[in-house]
Design brief:
Blueprint lengths: L10 E5 L4 E5 L6 H9 L11 H21 L4 H15 L18 H18 L12 H5 L5 H37 L4 E6 L2 E7 H27 E2 L16 H13 L4 E2 L3 H6 L2 H27 L10 E2 L17 H25 L9 H25 L5 E2 L1 H10 L8 H4 L1 H14 L3 H8 L4 H7 L2 H4 L25
Parallel strand pairs: 5-6
Antiparallel strand pairs: 1-2, 3-4, 7-8
Helix pairs in contact: 1-4, 2-3, 2-4, 2-6, 2-8, 3-4, 4-6, 6-7, 6-12, 7-10, 10-11, 10-12, 11-12
Protein name: Aspartate ammonia-lyase
Keywords: Lyase
InterPro entries: Aspartate_Ammonia-Lyase (IPR051546), Fumarase/histidase_N (IPR024083), Fumarase_C_C (IPR018951), Fumarate_lyase_CS (IPR020557), Fumarate_lyase_fam (IPR000362), Fumarate_lyase_N (IPR022761), L-Aspartase-like (IPR008948)
Length: 492
């Protein structure tokens, strides 16, 4: 055995009000993070699984350092070191040092402490000092100056959510365009529409795909409307909203710096006591995410139905084959991409319940359950963004139409008789539809044979433009008297 493997890991000792703990000497995190690792082995997922959250913490701490330096409550040299360390956090250089679990007690205190310690030790390193030399630069007294978990954590979460919403909006718009392009590509292909899974009137495959694009565009607008709600924060509130330990000029100063750092139009809440305990914005975003996810899931249900078969199902479209679909049935290919998006929607719907319950459970001046709110929202945003991307790239962009099958289905459909009802009457149309179904006949042929309309008139009335509800150049044809009832075909 390699003797090096037996060498003990170098450690350093850190002390807090509870006692002393050994921390790996090369770790940027410290004693408070170490205690959190022991206390919260719940999710087995560190906060670094959400890089936006880590980078948002860096932005908040950087804004605080600049505001503190501006107000003279933090020496310029310390503020510059903290500022530089925060820049490294925002650049993603220290992501792996954010190790506390995403699900934790303490209203996010462990996350805030993790950030304080990482930033402090990186600042010490930049100053040429050893990690843990807190007499020179302290995680709480310096990095956390004028702050508390109760204003840092929700503000960082809102900044991270703004980043996540922007990324989701980009992917959602790309997916919308993908469906719109397919709508153009399939504009000439007639198909049978369906209501309640029963044959209805004709439409084009292009109209169906265009409707998917339109509904995604509506969700894009609703999500965009939530962003300004996330801009309001409670930085400067410190513990409960009274601003204790913070300079009176801190709140406006830190807001100004946060706006400059993030590029978002942040604004300090008018009532910091209310803002510190209120989780309403998180419910608003969660509900909007659920709406978008559920509507996208419905689209995926439609894609699975339309591509079902390929022989014994609808078989109207072909989804790109992505992988073998069975370990026992050779040649089987499943709609795995729409299926995974369905599951994302199920998760987001469940997360919305979690956010709702966590928001309701807040008590008095603080909501202690923001960690589970953060985890739920950040996961929902991440998964929905990734789901939109894989649906577009691995499914929608490669969809093709089974034009021959669609044409056959339209030709055999009695639904097209609806287009003739203004000209032959409802009763006659119903009788012809019944006869067509019973005798497996073409409706257009029966109309001509009945003498109600000529072949030319039927052709005009059943043109693609008219069946699809588009403007037509043909003049209206007068309504004729109801057709006589045709005898049922003889049984064979």
């Amino acid at each position: 055995m390699d003797s090096d493997a037996l060498d003990p890991i170098p450690m350093r000792t850190e002390t807090d009000s509870v006692g002393s703990v050994q921390v790996p000497a090369d770790a940027y995190w410290g004693i408070h993070t170490a205690r959190a690792l022991e206390n919260f082995p719940i999710s087995r997922r560190p906060i670094s699984v959400y890089p936006n959250f880590v980078h948002a913490l860096g932005a908040v701490k950087q804004a605080a350092a600049r505001a503190n330096a501006e107000l003279g409550v933090l020496p310029a040299d310390k503020a510059e070191l903290i500022d530089a360390a925060c820049a490294d956090v925002r650049a993603g250089l220290l992501d792996e040092q954010f190790v506390v679990g995403v699900v934790q007690g303490g209203a996010g205190t462990s996350t805030n402490m993790n950030a304080n310690e990482v930033i402090a030790n990186r600042a010490l390193e930049l100053a040429g000092r050893p990690k843990g030399d807190y007499a020179f630069l302290h995680p709480i007294d310096d990095v956390n100056r004028s702050q508390s978990t109760n204003d840092v954590y929700p503000t960082a979460l809102k900044v991270a959510l703004c980043m996540g919403v922007d990324a989701l909006l980009d992917e959602l718009d790309r997916l919308r365009l993908s469906f719109a392009y397919k709508g153009q590509e399939f504009a000439h292909i007639l198909k049978v529409g369906r209501t309640q899974l029963q044959d209805a009137v004709p439409m084009t495959l292009g109209q169906e795909f265009r409707s998917f694009a339109v509904t995604l565009g509506e969700d894009h607008s609703r999500l965009r409307e939530t962003t300004p709600l996330l801009y309001e924060h409670n930085l400067g509130a410190t513990a409960i909203g009274t601003g204790i330990t913070a300079d009176p000029g801190y709140a406006p100063a830190v807001n100004r710096h946060l706006r400059a750092i993030t590029g978002f139009d942040h604004v300090t809440a008018q009532d910091l006591v209310e803002a510190t305990s209120d989780a309403g914005v998180f419910m608003s975003l969660s509900g909007t995410l659920k709406r978008s996810a559920i509507k996208l899931s419905k689209i995926c249900n439609d894609l699975r139905l339309l591509s079902s078969g390929p022989q014994a199902g609808f078989g109207e479209i072909n989804l790109p084959p992505r992988q073998a679909g069975s370990s026992i049935m050779p040649g089987k290919v499943n709609p795995v991409i729409p299926e995974v998006v369905n599951q994302i929607a199920f998760s987001i719907a469940g997360a919305d319940v979690t956010v709702t319950m966590a928001a309701e459970a807040g008590q008095l001046q603080l909501n202690a359950f923001e960690p589970i709110i953060a985890h739920s929202l950040l996961q929902s945003l991440t998964w929905l963004e990734n789901g939109c991307r894989t649906l577009r790239v691995n499914c929608v962009d490669g969809i093709t139409a089974n034009e021959r099958r669609l044409s056959q289905m339209v030709g055999a459909s009695v639904g097209i008789v609806t287009a003739l009802t203004p000209y032959i009457g409802y009763a006659a149309a119903a009788a012809l539809a019944k006869q067509a179904l019973a005798g497996h006949r073409d409706v257009a042929d029966l109309v001509v044979e009945s003498g109600l309309l000529t072949r030319e008139e039927v052709t005009q009335l059943l043109a693609l433009e008219r069946l699809a509800g588009q403007p037509t150049a043909t003049a209206p044809i007068p309504v004729l008297p109801p057709v006589q009832q045709f005898p049922a075909p003889a049984e064979r």
